[in-house]
Amino acid sequence: MKKLALVFLLAALAAPSLFAAAIDGTWIITRQNKKGDVKYELKLKADGAALTGTYGRQGARRSQPVSDGKVAAEGFSFSTTQKNKKGEFKMLWKGKVAGDEIQGEAGREGRRMQPFTAKRM
Question: Please, are residues 29 and 117 in contact by the beta-carbon 8 Å criterion?
Answer without folding.
Answer: yes
